[in-house]
Amino acid sequence: MTTTPLSTAQQVLLVILRTAVGWHFLYEGLYKLTTPAWSRAGLPLDHWSAAGYLRAASGPLSGLFHTLASPPWVQTVDMAVAAGLVLVGLSLVLGLFTQAGALGALGLLTLFYLSAIPTSGVHQPGGEGAYLIVNKNVVEAAAVAVVFAFRTGRIAGLDLLLRGGRPAPEMPVEVVTS
After folding, report:
1. Count of structural domains within the chain
2. Which residue has the higher pLDDT, 5 or 9?
3. Is the dihedral of CA 63, 104, 146, 2 positive or negative?
């Protein structure tokens, strides 16, 4: 077994992955803070709310999610979800407190997944695909786990500047050869 440092291309791709995931979180949060929600009939509602999502929860924490969908909890949940998405997104896009941002992303994605674990394997009305166990939340969580494991804030971003612009020590990758 030998170890080799990450190539420049590998480092660039890891930072691109971090930035893309961060943009997804940031845009979702900003959209929820600034744009009205829409009814199933296509009519604008006053503002975005997690209430419908929480009421539709069917996963192992559905009881908790249903409780959070009712006043006075739902207003707090609405703000916490939107703010959490924005903070995680900014962290990952800017490469600032990247490890904390990645943990925040993993926490949110875990909650989103637990709200409705896909077990039917068929297309659901209003859904964007047919999922069985693995859905977009699991895929994005795997991407975030890679960002976390490779400490991409030490490759590029404000974390690097906070370290005095010094790149992280060589990031070895174990390569198994036979």
Report:
1. 1
2. 9
3. negative
In a 13 Å sphere around the CA of 174, the CA atoms on its Cβ side amount to 3
Contact of 69 with 50, CB cutoff 8 Å: yes
- Give burial (CB, 10 Å; 0-12/13-18/19+) of 96: middle
Return the bridge partners of 145, or none.
none
Q: CB–CB of 25/105 below 8 Å?
A: yes
Helix (H) or strand (E) holding 109: helix 98-115
Q: Are 36 and 11 in contact (CB under 8 A)?
A: no
pLDDT tens-digit profile of 22-33? 999 999 999 988
Q: Is 157 helix (H, G, I), strand (E, B) or coil?
A: coil
User: How confident is the model over 77-128, as pLDDT tens digits?
Assistant: 999 999 999 999 999 999 999 999 999 999 999 999 898 887 777 777 777 7
Q: Which helix (H) or strand (E) holds 111?
A: helix 98-115
Burial of 170 (0-12, 13-18, 19+ CB in 10 A): exposed
